Amino acid sequence: MKSLFSLLVGLFLLSANTHAISLTFKLDIFSSGSDIYACNAGLMHKPYNNRVCYDRNNPENSCNPSLCEEGRACNCVCTGDILNNDGQGEFRLDYFTASYSNWADHGEIGTGKKTKNMAAGKNDFNQLFQDNAAFGKELSSLTFNLGSERYGAKYFLDVCYKSTQITYPAGLGLNYSHDKQITVTDLSDNGYNYEDLSGLAYKTVVVCKKKDSSDTQTEVNDWTQFNGNQVVDFSNVNFSFDIEKCKVRYLFKETNRTGVESLRRWNLQKARVCTYTSFNEPELN
After folding, report:
1. Is residue 92 packed enough to be buried (19+ CB in 10 Å), middle (13-18) or exposed (0-12)?
2. Which DSSP symbol is given to 107?
């Protein structure tokens, strides 16, 4: 009996080994982050329909040059001629300089680095790149040089945002938070303030595109003057969909286009504008 019991145990163990299983499984990992960078700029200066004449001894007072024939107002200075109500080529005295390269991922060096000078457009923006090409470019520096006789220039900076390349299914509750801020610092040392003299105003336009769709969502803030405020904070705006990319356009314009206030000072004015842009996925309440 002892030998028979041993045989049965051996058969049982052998049977258990024949039921062992194994599994080979492939696990795919997709990893992609986001990027944000300055990607475009533009400048324009519309012509004026009327001239401005001012007293050379007191530029804050307007004058009539025709009175010089009567022995009066002979120190009357007028801005450039207006032909056919279409102005002259003064807009070309405003220009901007930008250094840029082809967009590259974090830590990589962009190719095709260039520096370009562009004069202002007359009735529309002269911009560095067409809108559909801007996402492929990255600016490293930007300077606007405004030498027109009168204020009235309008210029912009675009900030591009590329979201993660991962596509998210519906129901995850995406809720991108978008924040903007503008800071203006006057760098002049002659007692004048560029923002006040030019009547500088700002406006923002945000356009975000959904993934796998031609649908977009736009958020616009109307024109507002700085009025001595050095820092401008915008209210938070949320986008509750799977974002592919966004463009934030910061627009600025010199609103003093009429009367003696439109005369640009000879003294060199210097100001620095800094923009802050963020896209986050905040925790939902």
Report:
1. middle
2. T
